[in-house]
Amino acid sequence: MGIGMESYDRAGGPSAGTRGDHRLGRCLLGLAALVLGLTGLAEPASADWRLYTTADIGYSVAIGDADGVIDFAPPTLNLGGDDTDVSPLVGGAFGIAIPMDEIAPIELPRGWRLPDWDVRGEIEAIGLREYEFKTDPVAAGQGRVLTEVDNWTVMANFWVDVPLRGLYRPISWTSSRLFGRWRLRTLKYALDRTTIYMGAGVGVAYLDAKTSEADNKGNGDDYNFAWQAGAGFGFQVSDRVNLSLGYRYLDPDSVEYDLVGGSLPLNGQSTFEIDPEIHEARAAVRVEIWDFATPWR
């Protein structure tokens, strides 16, 4: 048998050992192709759509606007005022990031195309918001009204990441003429990895509140339509990890409930409403967990 020639059995086909070698070779090649394909998903040239998960922490500042009435038989005591409280928050999100020019890969007039800025859509769940508001009745001499509010939200958010790399040329031109070319390489590195993000979201907010004023108490909970908007900065630490700092404004609507009396009988119109307006400072870690090429390429 010459070198490089296959061995054949008497029926004229490849021998059993040769057929086994071929199957083993095909399996190894298939395994190698699978491994290369999976690792190839992480290469920026072929990976345009990216799934990610985010972990959020931060501080939430809520301004609670209170309004209510204790309707004795008679008199009537009006409840109102506002107070501010601070609470930590924690949560996370799962989403997808798509370059803007890949969402609608069309050419605009004069050959223009949409920028390659990332557009992100995500489902976000945030909780651990706990506030305590102390407001004063309108009538003088009455005790303070204490309201405790727990809040969590589930939101569908949409963000646009605007890269800052385009600022390098004008900044370097100005800097070189004012200060010389001092640390411009560090500046370029930072701008290449930094983005400004902005966007908004809508979803569901859950409010659970309880109020006490002297001997009069009440509690209630509600699921409301909520919306939020925000902006901030992101920094790409590595190919898959991004750190961000930002601001959010959240409107979770309000919750209203009846009050029950203590020493004096109450009429049916004794109610209380708390309407929080929430401002938040957020820090987040975003990790890309899987990426793949644009489906319609």
Explained architecture:
The protein has 297 residues and is α+β, with helices and mostly antiparallel strands. 17% of the residues lie in helices and 55% in strands. The protein contains 4 helices and 9 strands. The longest helix has 25 residues, at 16-40. It is elongated and about 75 Å long. Mean pLDDT is 79; it is low at 1-46.
How widely separated are the two ends? 49 Å
Q: Which radius of gyration do the C-alpha atoms yield?
A: 31 Å
Residue stretches low in confidence (pLDDT < 50, at least 5 long) are 1-46
Q: Strands of the largest sheet, in order across it?
A: 1-2-3-4-5-6-7-9
Within the CATH hierarchy, at the fold level, what is the topology of the largest domain? Porin
Provide key terms for this protein.
297 residues; single chain; 8-stranded antiparallel beta barrel; Porin; 2 domains
In brief, what are we looking at here?
The chain has 297 residues and is of the alpha+beta class. The chain has helices at residues 16-40, 100-103, 168-178, 184-193; strands spanning 49-71, 76-99, 118-135, 145-163, 194-213, 216-236, 241-251, 255-258, 271-292.
Topology overview:
Layout (H helix, E strand, L loop, with lengths): L15 H25 L8 E23 L4 E24 H4 L14 E18 L9 E19 L4 H11 L5 H10 E20 L2 E21 L4 E11 L3 E4 L12 E22 L5
